[in-house]
């Protein structure tokens, strides 16, 4: 009997020995790690605390203990999005990307049955990003790339970025889009709205940009997954379809937006059974991948809890979302992990 595989697709990791580029380059916009104790640290930006993190963010043994306690077989590791640093000089951004890619690859090589790695690239320079994509996949063995939802205010359908998506399509490299530098950030300093409102809105804009761009007609091998259930996208799709129908001059696609939304992937991090059911109705079971946002406070614990609570799913469908869809998205042979 084939066992049920549980993969947490959406987790973040950072090295305890994180590079201090703020000090090296005399620029406090770089994120740096300031330890507060053996069990925690602050991510600092511009001399201020950006985010508190615990040792779960870097301690592999602590992470494995949590996985065992929560019944998670595999975590997919990706960088913390604030470290994208797309604003930086490309060569400096590459320095940080290579450091993180090397670090994540070292964890996956040490625990190949428990961790799968996603890398990062300096998207502010597409040529450099493509070269690092080739290195992290072909030399380091990472299985995909996490990218931000915009690049210095440019949406993902910006013509300058298209060669990167073309290369990902040609090389079969899956992309995980995570919100960062959210739209309307200046209006969200209170109530932690950046996390609760800004990120879902930003994700919808990123997904909408891909959907409306025409790239999914052109690059049929392109695999893209969006964090946080696609943000507000599932709710906005009928309005996008209406706009596509009434404004022919904006059309760059052969079909309406809802058609392309079903070609993309989404993590299951929506917390609520009704929201997950809505996603399934919009996108289909095959396109949803369990993910928790470990180890942050807004994470779902354990990953896929909302999947297990949804009574309309049968066991095979739950197994798809818990693990098999992740392997499919990452182009991995399930026999190696089952």
UniProtKB/TrEMBL annotation:
Q: What GO MF terms are annotated?
A: aminocarboxymuconate-semialdehyde decarboxylase activity
Pfam families (alphabetical):
Amidohydro_2 (PF04909)
UniProt keyword list: Decarboxylase, Lyase, Metal-binding, Zinc
Q: InterPro entries recorded for this chain?
A: ACMSD, Amidohydro-rel, Metal_Hydrolase
Q: In which pathway does it act?
A: Secondary metabolite metabolism; quinolate metabolism
Q: Cite the EC number.
A: 4.1.1.45
Q: Does the keyword Hydrolase apply?
A: no
Domain Amidohydrolase-related, chain residue ranges per copy: 7-332
Please, which domain of life does this record's source organism belong to? Bacteria
Subunit-structure text: Monomer.
The record's similarity note reads:
Belongs to the metallo-dependent hydrolases superfamily. ACMSD family.
User: What name does the UniProt record give this protein?
Assistant: 2-amino-3-carboxymuconate-6-semialdehyde decarboxylase
Organism equals Virgibacillus natechei
């Amino acid at each position: 009997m084939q066992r049920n595989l549980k993969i947490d697709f959406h987790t973040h990791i950072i090295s305890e020995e994180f590079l201090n580029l703020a000090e090296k380059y005399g620029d406090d916009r770089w994120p740096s790690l300031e330890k507060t104790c053996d069990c925690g640290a602050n991510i600092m930006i511009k001399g201020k605390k950006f985010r508190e993190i615990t040792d779960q963010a870097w301690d592999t043994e602590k992470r494995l203990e949590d996985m065992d306690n929560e019944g998670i077989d595999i975590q997919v590791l990706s960088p913390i999005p604030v470290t994208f640093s797309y604003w930086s000089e490309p060569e400096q951004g590459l320095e940080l990307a290579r450091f993180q890619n090397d670090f994540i690859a070292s964890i996956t090589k040490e625990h190949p049955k428990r961790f799968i790695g996603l890398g990062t690239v300096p998207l502010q320079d597409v040529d450099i990003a493509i070269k690092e994509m080739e290195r992290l996949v072909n030399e380091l063995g990472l299985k995909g790339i996490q990218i931000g939802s915009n690049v210095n205010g440019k949406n993902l359908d910006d013509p300058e970025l298209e060669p990167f998506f073309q290369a990902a399509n040609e090389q079969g490299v899956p992309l995980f889009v995570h919100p960062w530098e959210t739209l309307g950030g200046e209006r969200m300093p209170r109530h932690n709205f950046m996390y609760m409102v800004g990120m879902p809105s930003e994700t919808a804009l990123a997904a909408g940009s891909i959907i409306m761009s025409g790239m999914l007609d052109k690059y049929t091998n392109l695999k893209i997954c969006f964090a946080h259930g696609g943000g507000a996208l599932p709710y906005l799709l009928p309005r996008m379809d209406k706009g596509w129908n009434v404004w022919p001059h904006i059309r760059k696609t052969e079909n309406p937006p809802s058609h392309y939304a079903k070609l993309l992937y989404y993590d299951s991090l929506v917390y609520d059974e009704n929201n997950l059911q809505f996603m399934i109705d919009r996108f289909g079971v095959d396109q949803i991948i369990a993910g928790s946002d470990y180890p942050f406070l807004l994470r779902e614990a354990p990953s896929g809890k909302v999947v297990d609570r949804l009574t309309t799913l049968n066991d095979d469908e739950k197994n798809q979302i818990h693990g098999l869809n992740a392997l499919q998205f990452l182009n991995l042979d399930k026999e190696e992990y089952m």
